[in-house]
Amino acid sequence: MRTRAQQARRALLLLSPALIVLAVVIGYPVLRAIYLSFQADRHLDPDTGVFVEGGFAGFQHYLYWLNQRCMGSDGLATTCPPGVLSTDFWPALTNTVGFTLATVTLETILGMIMALIMAGNYKGRGLVRAAVLIPWAIPTAVTAKLWQFMFAPQGIVNSVLGTDIMWTTDPWAARFAVIIADVWKTAPFMALLILAGLQMIPKETYEAARVDGASRWQQFWLITLPLVRPALMVAVLFRTLDALRMYDLPVIMISPSSNSPTAVISQLVVEDMRQGNFNSASALSTLIFLFIFFVAFILIRFLGADVSGTGEQRAAKKEAKRRQKREAKAATVQMGAS
């Protein structure tokens, strides 16, 4: 126990610089944003004609976003006029969730296929891996402009398909274009993480399966998929959290306006800040943080995404206990036979 306590203190001492930096860079901005979300915006006092601090606003900013309420001149949420919706929060949230489901699903499937190809043993494997990872290495802004040119009315996509689809203005076509561009860029990232999991599978397992007469599909379904599942779940977790924070691709490729058919919730935060509404933007940032935290909890709790690696340790301990029980049972049988 004393040795463990010394090791814990030494580990804490070594980690303390990194923890302090994280607290300053991440912890303080998060706490500051939460504090601002409960403060009313500065507004013009009609009596004095000067700007004054709004003071404590409670959950008014959260109501402004969630209940589609308007912001009054005093910096507090109020009822909107008939037929007027104040924010695009729910449409943007729908776009964000839709993009996340579509892109993560397609990237997982394509990433698995690319990882299986890159894991093969053949000539030119290094060249294939380098070629697959090129889209992921390209900056997102460059990717957005590249696909914007390709989806232009006279672009290569319409020329190849022989169509005249307005990819950047038609709502459904614009959403489809953003999904294609995002999948093209980030599927290699999924492939890289899945490839790391594939390389951890012992080759002897496949050799034993081939000796037993297992087909390639049986090897994939009964060996590859179960053993690569921890790495696959971590890849899905990271990619899901990244997709929920999507901002630059639809902004550069389609439009920076919150009224755009591809607007996501991160766009609302930036646009609100540009208008000087820092407190309501902080409230929306807090809502995004809570939503992403909830999604991460669901993925870790119910889908088995083992981020810390403790799941593998627990599985190894269970397997060791089972082995000990089997050995003890075999020893008991031998003693009885003798």
Care to describe what's here?
It is a single chain. The chain is mostly helical. The chain folds into two domains: 9-78, no CATH class; 90-309, MetI-like (MetI-like fold, Orthogonal Bundle), CATH 1.10.3720. The protein has helices at residues 2-37, 60-66, 89-118, 125-137, 140-150, 156-161, 171-198, 203-211, 216-244, 248-253, 265-274, 278-302, 310-337, and strands at residues 43-44, 51-52, 70-71, 77-78.
Short account of what is shown:
The chain is mainly α.
- Report the sheet-strand fraction: under 5%
Coarse shape? flat
- CATH fold-level topology of the largest domain: MetI-like fold
Order of helices and strands: HEEHEEHHHHHHHHHHH
Structural class: mainly alpha
Task: Say how many strands there are.
Answer: 4
Total number of distinct structural domains: 2
Q: Give the helix proportion (percent range).
A: over 70%
Look at the structure and give the mean pLDDT.
83
The parts where pLDDT drops under 50 for at least 5 residues are none
Largest sheet geometry: 2 strands, antiparallel
Name of the top-level CATH class of the largest domain: Mainly Alpha
Features:
single chain; 338 residues; mainly alpha; MetI-like fold; 2 domains; two-stranded antiparallel ribbon
